[in-house]
Amino acid sequence: CHRTRAKDEL
Amino acid sequence: MNVFRLTGDLSHLAAIIILLLKIWKSRSCAGISGKSQILFAVVFTTRYLDLLTSFISLYNTSMKLIYIGCAYATVYLIYVKFRATYDGNHDSFRVEFLVVPVGGLAVLINHNFSLMEILWTFSIYLESVAILPQLFMISKTGEAETITTHYLFCLGLYRALYLLNWIWRYYFEGFLDMIAIFAGLVQTVLYCDFFYLYVTKGGKDRKKVMLP
Least enclosed by CB within 10 Å: which of B31, B54, B75, B162? Predict the structure, then answer.
């Protein structure tokens, strides 16, 4: 699991 | 960008526009929770602070600006322009019971302990429960106008489509964001009861949908 978020999502 | 992301975004946009137009055309915000709309304005403001720090795409930037602009326009219509039609007595949900725990959770469980990340996490958690004052108001008055149910349907559908988007991204990109998925699941579940009523009792020639 990524310790990040999807920066392209709204 | 996949088909679920795009239709999710468009469904979200449709919900926002439907509500704005409903209030504007009827010159009334009766039956609409101003508290939910303030929470959504806070959600967009805290989530889209990255407008100031990074550029993703023209689509991304313009959608963020439209969402924020419409959220504030809706709050303005409810609390300023059509204030006389705002039913404050029925909009009695205590939002501090949402904002305080959600703020605490955002500080405790986040991807990265930085101000921007915590505010983003706060917005994700807050969005998942921001509709509660609206659902509470409808359950209190026992009815919702058809156009309000269309708004709620589009708003609920948006997060359900995002769940499909996250499943897609997990399979095809190996991407998994547990915070967004967990909050998205909570958010979608909150609409389930409403979805059921919308499908079974909505449409036809009913003017209003009664909720238990």
Answer: B54
